[in-house]
Amino acid sequence: MAEQIAFELVSPVKKLLGKPVAMVSMPGTEGDFAVLPGHAPLIATLRPGVIETYDADRVSDRIFVGGGFVEVTAERCTVLAQEALPVAEIDRAALNTAIMELESGLAAAADTERTTIAGQLAVAQAKREALN
Known about the structure:
Blueprint: E1 5-10, E2 15-21, E3 23-28, E4 31-35, E5 42-46, E6 49-55, E7 58-65, E8 68-72, E9 76-81, E10 84-86, H1 92-108, H2 111-131
Parallel strand pairs: 1-9
Antiparallel strand pairs: 1-2, 3-4, 3-6, 5-8, 6-7, 7-10, 8-9
Helix pairs in contact: 1-2
């Protein structure tokens, strides 16, 4: 059996995924990166995007994360995500409606609300990109 690393994905609500994988790729704030067994220790922040887990040479899971943190050791990769859901569960129509509402809300927002709405819009746009 090929070498594997223990992968866990945890949201504020629950543990979403926990299994051994051959590799994990993820959207770091400094750029995308992959984690293999034996990886050097690392703590990094994640931007909104897609985490892909691999069994051997094929993608086994595609999970959208709305940002968060990852801790990597030689044996384990743990993601603490602000929001996470399988890409296959993203509702394109509802997402497009939400993006239109956020864009119009951003245009009409007071200065104190703009940062929050802009963050929500960035996450929604990253979800749409995950579907392409």
